[in-house]
Amino acid sequence: MRSFWPLAIMAAVYIAFSRSSGPGGGVTSDRVRRIAEAIAVAEGFAFPGAPATSPGNIPNSRNNPGNLTDASKPIGSPNWIRTFPTKEAGWAALYAQVEKMLKGSTLYPAHWTIEQVAQRYTGEAAYRNWSNIVSRRLGVSPHSVFSELA
Fold it and tell me: What stretch of H or E contains 29?
């Protein structure tokens, strides 16, 4: 009878090199992690060792690196921007959001560019700043199709 160990070792090596631990501590794909980190920077999340931001920094104070909102609450209401119990939970929610965005949806169609995603994600007139930050962090153009980001 053949041993299954060589196959198990190859599978473990593949998983270890194709997935990595993100800032939230969970395991996620490198692609999703890189995009989520770019979004977090655009949203003003202060990474450890980064220059200090204002004390009321919402992404940090709410453990919400993506500044994710609660669609059931009115825009601008006190709890419209979600608060997570831990930074890990906030990162997990952002990773899940990025995965949905990469697959395409009615909110974020698969053919949209980073700039178009920025308009929907930020809901602000200053969406170009967000798209430029995300694009620079990923080394691509703001006109790159979001679902095709590597």
Answer: strand 27-29
Radius of gyration of the chain from Cα atoms?
Answer: 17
| d(C-alpha 33, C-alpha 21), whole Å | 8
pTM over 0.90: no
Burial class (CB in 10 A: 0-12, 13-18, 19+), 69: middle
CA–CA separation, 14 and 31 (whole Å): 15
Rounded to 5°, the CA angle 83-31-98 comes to 35
Mean pLDDT of 28-47: 91
Helix (H) or strand (E) holding 19: strand 19-21
Q: How far apart are CA 90 and CA 147, in angstroms?
A: 22
- Over the chain, what is the mean pLDDT? 81
Round to whole Å and give the CA distance between 109 and 112. 6
